[in-house]
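Appendix B. Chain record.
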Amino acid sequence: MYAIVYIYIHVLHMQLTTHPHTNTPTLSRRSWREFPHPEEEDIEQAENREHARWIKRYNTKLREKGKKEEKARLKEFVEAAYKRDPRVIARKEAERAKR
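Structure tokens predicted for this chain:
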């Protein structure tokens, strides 16, 4: 069950694209999900190049924090599904009975 849920979540993070040379559909590993933060600053408002770089680094840190939180939330969801799945529970009970 865990593998099925993992594969499902992994596929959710993949994006269907077309190969540039053959125009055949392929799956890209680039995430289609975005993690905008309400406190992100606009790079266009930067006073100079250094300030723009600082804003870009700051926004990247905020987005990475959002990604970590989302990954933790998904991991918690998968673990909860794994614990409550009757097939997994039955398999664990069968393994205990064999001992």
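Further analysis of this model is presented in Appendix C.
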